[in-house]
Amino acid sequence: MADQAQRIVFLLKKLQMGNKYTTSEAYEMICKEFGPHSLRTVQRDMLLLQKCEPTVNATRVGKEHLWFIPKEIRKAEAMMRIDNNEILSFYILKAHLKTFNGTVIEDDINRLIDKLEKFAPDEIYAPESLFWDQNIGYFDYSKYNDILKDIIDAIVNKKWINIDYNTSSKGIINKILINLRCLFTYSGALYAVAYVPKHDSHIALALHNIVNMEEVPNFKKKLPEFSFKEWTKNRFGVFYGEPKRIVLTIKPEFKHYFINRKWHQSQNLIEEEDGSLTMELKVPLGPDFISWLLSWSSAIIIKKPKELRKAIIEKLEKALIDYDYKEIEGNE
Description:
Layout: H1 2-16, E1 21-22, H2 23-34, H3 39-52, E2 57-61, E3 64-68, H4 71-80, H5 84-97, H6 106-116, H7 145-156, E4 160-166, E5 173-186, E6 189-196, E7 201-206, E8 210-215, H8 228-232, E9 244-250, H9 255-258, E10 268-271, E11 277-283, H10 287-295, E12 300-304, H11 306-323, H12 325-331
Antiparallel strand pairs: 1-3, 2-3, 4-5, 4-8, 5-6, 6-7, 9-11, 9-12, 10-11
């Protein structure tokens, strides 16, 4: 009975996705998923499924039945099957969408918000709260309408573009031929992942550093496969580098800040007998990771590698020099 229930649930999910199957096709799929079964067994499964779920239709096609759930019923069912987590997601989405007020896509966003109102009426999130984290601040993009519009167009239409990119506080402009793959947010700012054919690699670009964009319609090159999850394996933040094995000790009094947080996809947390946590991860020793460690300097003890301990000590020593702490102690 349990085996039959598994098969029926499997078939129902397939049909709810909009698929249509003849009895023979359903039979081949069941055998592939659950191992050898008889055609008669699958026929009984389909009849029982139709009895339990009346939305499942069967129409005669030659000598067989074609099983399906009509599109209009699937759409209505999908609208009704919204759990509490999905409703919460709608509210969060509404709040995020309102941060685009005043930009070139405001009218489109407002139409989408009107549709969300049917499922998530009123407000439970203040839009301002989404970027309220004073630890990182956030970038104001209200003056970047034109460049934002061009970036969205370039991503959607997979355009090759030349950009002028401001890489430093000295105003040095680099010209780069790229193809923009997607956007992501980090530390209160918008970034784009861009493929650079010259180096056959993907890099991170801060949107506010893109000074100018120009389409290159005659450039032709096949884009490589891209996975954002795979791309971030060699990053902690936006900086790329060779991943190193990191071992950290989280002091017991700070454990509650770390126990249920995901800082990097490679991390592994181990609870020790003394109440501390051991965190192991593989990340590059870039500026973002160094800054993160310094921000938790009172909570974290670096065990490995030695080069990371050395880098943190050098940063702390420089900070002491910058603050001239001995002079401060003397004045006190």
